[in-house]
Amino acid sequence: MRTGWKRGAKNRMDWRKAVTAVLAGIVVLGALYLFMPRPEKPVAVEEPVRAPAIDPFARVSVQGKAAIVYDLTTGDVLYAKNPDAQLPLASLTKLITVYSALEYLSPQYPIVVTEDALATEGDSGMILGERFSLQNAAKLALVASSNDISEAIALTVEGVRSLSTRQLSATLAQSMGLNQTYALNGTGLDESTTTAGGYGSARDIAKLAGALVEKAPEIAEATTHTAITAATLEGTMHTLSNTNHGIRHVPGALLSKTGFTDLAGGNLVVVYDTGINHPVAVVVLGSTIEGRFTDVERLTNATMLYFSSL
Question: Can you tell me the distance from the alpha carbon of 46 to that of 48, in angstroms, rounded to the nearest whole number?
Fold first, then answer.
C-alpha cells in the first residue's frame, strides 16, 4: 500500500509540472506576441475633392446665327450654335474656289485677268491681261477678298475642267464630306436679292479651312498678315490690305477669311494653333459686319481658357 501511494503522488507531481510548463510557455509566447514589432498599417489618405471643371464656353454669347469651335486634331466640337445650318457664305466661298483650283492646277499655273473677271463687283486694282501664278492669285483672293482675282481663278478652272463652278464645288463637297456646301460663283457675291453666291455650314467651313491649311500652308499663312504684296508674272507688284483687321491679335494664327453680303451678313473663319501642331477652327456665320470680329474674339478667348485648363 505504501508503495502504490508513493507512485500515485509522483504521477500527480509530474502532471502538475507538465501543466505548469505548458502554462509558462503560453505566457512566454503571449509576451513575445505583445512586444513583437509589427508592420505599420498604411495610413488612408483622403483624395482632395476637385471642384467641377468650369466650362469656358458656358457664358459665351455670339450674335451670329451659327458658330462652331472645331478641334481639327481630334475632331471634337468644343462649342456649337446651329453648326449644320446651311447659310450664305459670302466671301468664305473663295475658300471653295481656291481649294478647287489647287485640286486641278499647279501652284504656278497662270491665272489671267479677263474682261469677265473685271466685270465682277469691286475693284482691287487689277489690269486687263495681267497674269498671276495661281499661288499669288490665291493669296490676293483670300487676304484682300479680291473679287476679280477670285473670278479669274474660277473661270480658269472652269475652262480647264469644262465644268461649272457649281459642278466643281459639288465634286469637292462630296469628296470632303461637306454636306451643306456648294457654290454658284467663284466670289460668293449674291446672285440676286434672294440667292447667295455660295452656301455652307459652320461645320463644313471649319473642315474646309483646316484642309486648306494642310494642302497649301504658304497660301494660308499669307492670310495671317495685315497686308499682302504679290507680283504678276510680268513683275508688276500689287499690295492689298487684309480684310480681317483683327488677325494680328490672334496668337498662332494659321488662316483667316472674312465674308459679308446683304444675304449673308458678317462671316468669319480663323484657324490657329492652340499648342504644338494642335490647330482649331473658329467659324461664325450670319453675324454683323463688326459683330463677326467680336464673336470670333469671344470664342478664341474661351478656347484658350479651355486648353490652358487641361
Answer: 6
- For 290, which DSSP code? T
| Whether the Cβ atoms of residue 158 and residue 101 lie closer than 8 Å to each other | no
297 membership: H or E segment, kind and range: helix 291-308
Q: Which of 299, 285, 304 is nearest to 83 (CA)?
A: 285
119 vs 263: CA distance, rounded Å: 21
d(CA 111, CA 114): 9
- The secondary structure of residue 108, as a DSSP letter, is T
Q: Which region, left, alpha or beta, applies to residue 285 given φ > 0 means left and ψ of -120 to 50 means alpha?
A: beta
Number of neighbours of residue 229 by Cβ within 10 angstroms: 14
C-alpha cell at 163: 465644268
Q: Using an 8 Å Cβ cutoff, are 299 and 62 in contact?
A: yes
Q: Are 177 and 207 in contact (CB under 8 A)?
A: yes
Give me the DSSP letters along 12-44.
Answer: HHHHHHHHHHHHHHHHHHHHHHHHS--PPPPPP
Q: Name the pTM for this structure.
A: 0.82
**C-alpha cell at position 206:** 471649319
Return the CATH number of the domain spanning residue range 66-308.
Answer: 3.40.710.10
pLDDT in tens, 197-238: 999 999 999 999 999 999 999 999 999 999 999 999 999 999
| pLDDT tens for each residue of 253-289 | 999 999 999 999 999 999 999 988 999 999 999 999 9
